[in-house]
Design goal:
The complex is a heterodimer.
Chain A lengths: L3 H12 L16 H17 L23 E11 L9 E7 L10 E4 L5 H11 L6 E4 L2 E4 H8 L7 H11 L10 H7 L5 H10 L6 E4 L10 E7 L2 E4 L2 E4 L1 H7 L6 E7 L13 E4 L5 H13 L6 E7 L2 H4 L3 H9 L5 E6 L9 H7 L1 H9 L3 E6 L1 H20 L3 H15 E5 L1
Parallel strand pairs in A: 11-12, 11-14, 12-13, 14-15
Antiparallel strand pairs in A: 1-2, 1-10, 2-7, 3-6, 3-10, 4-5, 8-9
Chain B lengths: L1 H4 L3 H7 L8 H6 L8 H6 L5 E5 L4 H6 L6 E6 L6 E2 L1 H14 L4 E3 L5 E6 L1 H13 L16 E2 L9 H14 L6 H7 L26 E4 L13 E8 L2 E9 L18 E6 L2 H18 L10 H8 L1 H12 L19 E4 L5 E5 L5 E2 L7 H11 L3 E4 L5 E6 L4 H10 L2 H6 L3 H4 L2 E2 L17 H14 L9 E4 L13 E7 L2 E6 L10 E7 L1 H18 L6 H7 L6
Parallel strand pairs in B: 6-7, 7-8, 16-17, 17-18
Antiparallel strand pairs in B: 1-2, 2-5, 3-14, 4-5, 4-13, 8-9, 9-10, 11-12, 12-15, 14-15, 18-19, 19-20
Helix pairs in contact in B: 6-7, 6-13, 10-12, 13-14, 17-18
Classes of the chains: A alpha/beta, B alpha+beta.
Chain lengths: 419, 557
Amino acid sequence: MFCKTGEDVDAQLQKLGGTPVIPIQKCDVDYESDAEAWFAKVIQTLNQEEAATPAALKPLPQTAAKTNTKKVYRGSVLSNLNLNDKGSHKEIYHIELAAEGVGYLPGDSIGVVPENPLAVIQIIIKELGVPGNTSITYKDIDYTLSDFLQKKVAVQYLHERVVKKYAAIVQKEIPENKTDLLNLLQHFPLTGFEQFKEVANILPAQSPRIYTIASSPSAHDGEIHLTVEKDAFIVNGEKKTGLCSGYLSGIGESAEFEFFVQKNKRFKLPAADKDVLLIAPGTGIAAARSFISERDAIGATGKNWLFFGEENFTADFLYQTEIQNWFETGVLTKVSLAFRKDGPEESFIWDKIKQNGKEIYDWIQSGAYLYVSGEKAPMSVEVEKALQQVIATHSGLSAEAAQTYWEQLKEERYSKDVY
Amino acid sequence: MSEKANLSQIEKIKQASDGLRGTIKESLQDEITGAIREDDQALIKFHGMYQQDDRDRREERAAKKLERLYSFMIRLRLPGGFLSPEKWIAVHDVAGEHSTGVIKITSRQTVQLHGIIKSHIKPTIKDFNEAKLDSIATCGDINRNVLCSSHPAQSPIHAEIFAYADKISNLLMPKTKAYYEIWLDEEQLIDKKDEEDPLYQDRYLPRKFKIAIAIPPDNDVDVFANDLGLIAIIENGKLKGFNIAIGGGLSSTHGNPETYPRLGTIIGFADSEEKIFKAIYEIITIQRDYGNRSDRKQARLKYTLDKYGVAWYTQELEKRTGFALEPAKPYSFTNRGDLFGWQQNEQGQWYYTVFVENGRVLDNEKVALKTGLLEIAKTGKANFRFTCNQNLILGDIDEKDKNTVNGLLEKFGIIKHTEGQSLIRKNSMACVALPTCPLALTEAQRYLPSLIDKIEVLLDKYSIKDDGMIIRMTGCPNGCARSTAAEIGFIGTAPGRYNLQLGGDRIGERLNKIYRENINETEILDSLDPLFKSYSAERLAGETFGDFALRQKWVTP
């Protein structure tokens, strides 16, 4: 199913009578150089047709900066603590970074390229039988072997595609399951380091993980805060943790790691006098914390209403004391909560939205901006359904008019940051 | 009048509370916090509960940006400490559903549940209500649970005297219907006149008020530790009436010499039920009208009594009741401990007193006490009675059912557990203290068992292990486990430190005094070692440790 969406779009466009200006380019996670080359070709092709193109459609002049060179910063960890209390099923970490001079706005994210566990890298190097400082070239850049393995490429949960390529190199039958590089090296050994150079080029570059920033530049000067849930899952009956969340959750004070800022222009606060309604369950609270901190720091006059949800009130109420302070000082006008494992029946944040329907509708009517952050499905899907239902119920509009109302709201005053 | 101007904050809250309602309903709706609003915290006491938090977890939770781990303790109103087996099952189930699961038998003959989170308070009270149980007025500035000597084998007319506990409790119930409205969603009264309360008015009492009934020769209720104590006078097998003692109360505050523990003073005798109730009622109205309402540390009846004098109080009482009390009748106490094991009463029914360490009913590695008691309750053959020493009596068992109950007691190791304890451990008592009690300065019920282990070694060393001396520990000087009325009292001063107090008598008629101040465990054991040695070698026949301590002038009365 590699690049299936791209293929489908391409096929559909052709079916509708389109002709490709240039052929489709399929990219893996390490997409940047291929994508850049492709975009360059597109621009070149379009430029050749410039004479025949109306001025309004002319591409903007390219800026000098290369598209893939996001500025990389080094942040050092000020503190890292698990926000969940005993009895929780979750491990969600609040990480504070010293990040002097890093420009960002509430709603932005950072990208972090995780490092592979050093212990694993050391065994791989031992398995390869060469020193860690041996030079290796990957996509035309030279690295030391240990740096390359630790920082540049993925070595765990390798995709079936990669396994297939490895099988071709070693000329063995290998079951096409997700597996680790070390496992491959141990069970299907290479002939030597020369062969590893081939293997190196099939390893996917480590891709960045994106985390919404939980701090605000006005409230937390020189710092960036993150809310990171340690991702736990089962592989072949074994409990594993996500590489990046596992890496970040275990990171100690004064450790450093690299990151870049990922702007999110579609998720920004409105003017200070506008009201905002933040629907931010789970780690979605990161974006809300950033927004509320900012509104508090700048003395925004608009009202703020926070919806938060988690499993358990006593163990999982993320940033509870901060939320209480904002409520006491009036920064938060209203706080609505859904702890789904507390009651006799599960209750979700979208239920809470329906329960507060009338008031939510009044807020929307008086110009409030709505923000949804956190889990994509089922959360954001159900929240949208609930909001549509709220509008339909309380507006008195016909089904069709309510739908139009919702579409317009989405267009103008509704944003989401979901994953 | 100056006092009126200086009413304490709690007084203002009570008067403004609209019959103890305050904003409790709103507090329950505040979903952002597990606590209730500050003023309401004073009011829920009158409904039988305290807001507490796990003090062990404060720092860690603050670091996690979580508020304190709030929960509530709910205490039942059980005059005389009695539950039918059906009600015990209900309490067992409620404890499992809504609280920590531990059923705590208190030093005032009732049971309380801990660790109930805010959203579970109403379900807890609803479940209790369905079992015809309530928690009205078990805390707060009001008459609390009424005690009565617990063991029916103590007297052929135990039942007759026992009935007074319930009657007194009903006589002194507040008239407000707030409890039913707030916790049980019953409809609000239209006519507030139905709630008018001639006894408590809108101010209630200046401070807590405790009543106990003792049936000589047993003083298991510690009758003199109560604001109002009744001592049953029995002549020729007939109840003649009661001696009345007032002004008992054991709490004090470290570093505040104006505060002190005090035993009740007997002010006379009343013979008829009518007179007894009238006297009780008016003793309370005098305290209501004259008790200190500006300084809560001077508000108990004992301070009112010492301020105005016994003669004045008795005169004022006579004025209000319209009759004079008769001179007190002779009586004598010989015992304060519980009658463990099987006992039979005059009517031939059987009673088994179970040792419950510090009143905590739970299953642990030593004994499946909670499960065993549930199984016994399910047979429907035994009532549950609680003692003021935090133990439990399975009672009113017919001869034909004794074997069934005994079999279950054997099966769950309860007999072995009860009989396997030293007398010293069975006679000991500790209050709740850490981690939930907000007043605690140090450990009590979590620590005393291990200290007793070490004290037993010392007693064994001097061959006095079978001595029935009374050891009590409290985590602060407020005296919930009546540590000042013990032969050896430990009163918490700071983490891991206690005042060691000696010289109290065995029957609760003399308080102890400080022997060593603010000492740790090593110092406690080093202090006790030579005392036990000397007691073992030099005591007179029948001389108790408390009396010996006084004769040796280890402390001066």
